[in-house]
């Protein structure tokens, strides 16, 4: 295994493929929020339509990301990434030409299917190729590079909305998709696939129906009320289906979500922290992106540029933070990062009718960005570094599913959080909820995450590659000191 600063040709190609494959998924996530007001003006619909434009993607992504992780481990990461790239490109074109909001929502749902194939497979490719400090550094580089989508998305989305059309921004995925397909063609890399592994299709169906029913009920409940059978019937079916999914995972021969993974302390604790942190990130991103346009009156370009400092900070420091987390352990970073983000969210309470970006929003953005930079790479490394590389696909998929489903549920509950309207009072309520969720994520990390043991060094004084603990073997993390 190459040292953290000396990658082989194949390792560099793997890292670039992982970065670009994830880039297209992250790019669409940031583009959509900035484009929502323009989409609403052209295609119609209110807050519920905006929620569905975001959540249609997240429903299929969150529901199928687990089966995508299984597909990655069964059929190979390269093959699954290839299918995801092609599907993402086709659905991006469908979104760009959608004549109605309903068809756009359907296209977004299909795009979520393709997106489910990309992120866990790309991250699993990294964790299967790099181990030890090299893995922490690679994940840090992946975090910094994919975060550039947070720059490109809002800026390109805002420019397109203001000067061209929101439709064109969904077509910019063609470039990174094309480059990634070319890199896949020149990579001399063969997937290692277990012969007896299968995909749990029944589990996939139960998970999809479970999440879809619950989220539909949460989004439509403010319009129809809990007494409506259109609400309580899907909610009941969703809850029963998801309960059936969990039972299925306990008895299936090749489950989508092996419950034994949750015996590893850093894995289950990291995923619990992920739920709070990424739920808060989804809420903050949606509310800030929409309010700056509809409440504060900023044009789409300026609204897109408003959170640019967050991305700049992550691009500059994420790789370094990943390296430090590999050396010192993730616990400190996973505790301080979310708490710092919580402070940033509280600063949004200074936003007033007499709006000023420089004094009311920018301080929050900078503090939030510093906290996010401290959090992301160590969180990913702590979770995936605790799992055997043979299960890296499903482990990455579970973590991504947790983050996406957390965002999905929070956005579905948006009307209840903001009080039915995203005015200034609703904006402040969302900031308080965001801060509370982030603080909870930091406290969960402090209480539950354990730093792995110090690694031995070779004769040259370089850390040797870590040998990961087997699935379900929690001793490696439970016995380590904090």
How would you briefly describe this protein structure?
75% of the residues lie in helices and 0% in strands. The protein has 482 residues and is mainly α.
Q: What is the residue-averaged pLDDT?
A: 78
Number of domains: 2
Q: List the uncertain runs.
A: 457-482
Gyration radius over CA: 21 Å
Give the percentage of residues in beta strands.
under 5%
- Quaternary assembly: single chain
**Head-to-tail CA distance between termini:** 28 Å
Query: At the first level of CATH, what is the class of the largest domain?
Result: Mainly Alpha
Largest sheet composition:
none
**Overall form:** globular
User: Which architecture name of the largest domain does CATH use?
Assistant: Up-down Bundle
| Count of helix runs | 18
Q: SSE order in H/E notation? A: HHHHHHHHHHHHHHHHHH
Q: How does the helix and strand content classify structurally?
A: mainly alpha
Can you count the beta strands? 0
- Any idea what the CATH superfamily of the largest domain is called? MFS general substrate transporter like domains
Can you describe what's shown?
This protein is mostly helical and 482 residues long. It has two domains: 9-188 and 256-454 and 466-478, MFS general substrate transporter like domains (Growth Hormone, Chain: A); 200-253. 75% of the residues lie in helices and 0% in strands. The longest helix is centred in the N-terminal third of the chain and has 35 residues, at 9-43. Residues 457-482 have low confidence and may be disordered.
């Amino acid at each position: 295994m190459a040292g953290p600063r000396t990658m082989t040709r194949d390792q560099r190609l793997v890292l670039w493929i992982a970065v670009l494959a994830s880039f297209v998924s992250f790019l669409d996530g940031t583009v959509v929020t900035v484009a929502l007001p323009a989409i609403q003006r052209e295609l119609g619909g209110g807050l519920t339509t905006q929620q569905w434009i975001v959540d249609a993607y997240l429903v299929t992504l969150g529901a199928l990301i687990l089966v995508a992780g299984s597909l990655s481990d069964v059929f190979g990461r390269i093959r699954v990434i290839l299918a995801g790239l092609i599907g993402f490109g086709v659905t991006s074109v469908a979104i760009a030409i959608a004549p109605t909001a309903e068809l756009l929502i359907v296209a977004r749902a299909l795009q979520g299917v393709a997106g489910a194939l990309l992120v866990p497979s790309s991250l699993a490719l990294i964790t299967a190729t790099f181990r030890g400090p090299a893995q922490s550094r690679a994940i840090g580089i992946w975090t910094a590079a994919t975060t550039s989508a947070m720059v490109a998305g809002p800026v390109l989305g805002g420019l397109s909305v203001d000067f061209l059309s929101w439709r064109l921004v969904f077509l910019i995925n063609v470039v990174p998709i094309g480059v990634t397909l070319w890199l896949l063609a020149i990579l001399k890399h063969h997937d290692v696939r277990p012969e007896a592994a299968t995909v749990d299709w029944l589990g996939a169906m139960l998970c999809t129906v479970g999440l879809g029913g619950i989220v539909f009920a949460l989004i439509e409940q403010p319009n129809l009320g809990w007494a409506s059978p259109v609400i309580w019937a899907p909610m009941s079916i969703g809850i029963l289906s998801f309960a059936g999914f969990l039972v299925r995972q306990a008895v299936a021969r090749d489950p989508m979500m092996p419950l034994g993974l949750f015996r590893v302390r850093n894995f289950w604790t990291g995923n619990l922290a992920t739920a709070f942190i990424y739920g808060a990130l989804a809420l903050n991103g949606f509310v800030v992106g929409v309010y700056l346009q509809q409440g504060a009156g900023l044009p789409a370009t300026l609204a897109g540029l408003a959170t640019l400092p967050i991305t700049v900070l992550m691009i500059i420091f994420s790789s370094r933070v990943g390296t430090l987390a590999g050396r010192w352990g993730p616990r400190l970073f996973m505790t301080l990062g979310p708490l710092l983000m919580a402070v940033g969210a509280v600063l949004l309470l200074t936003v007033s009718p007499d709006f000023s970006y420089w004094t009311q929003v920018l301080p929050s953005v900078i503090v939030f960005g510093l906290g996010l930079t401290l959090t992301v790479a160590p969180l990913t490394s702590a979770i995936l570094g605790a799992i055997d590389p043979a299960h890296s696909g499903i482990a990455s998929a579970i973590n991504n599913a947790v983050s996406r489903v957390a965002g999905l549920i929070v956005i579905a509950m948006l009307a209840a959080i903001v009080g039915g309207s995203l005015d200034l009072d609703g904006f402040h309520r969302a900031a308080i909820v965001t801060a509370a969720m982030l603080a909870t994520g930091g406290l969960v990390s402090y209480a539950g995450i354990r730093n792995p043991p110090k690694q031995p060094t070779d004769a040259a004084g370089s850390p040797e590659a870590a040998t990961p603990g087997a699935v379900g073997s929690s001793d490696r993390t439970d016995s380590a000191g904090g």
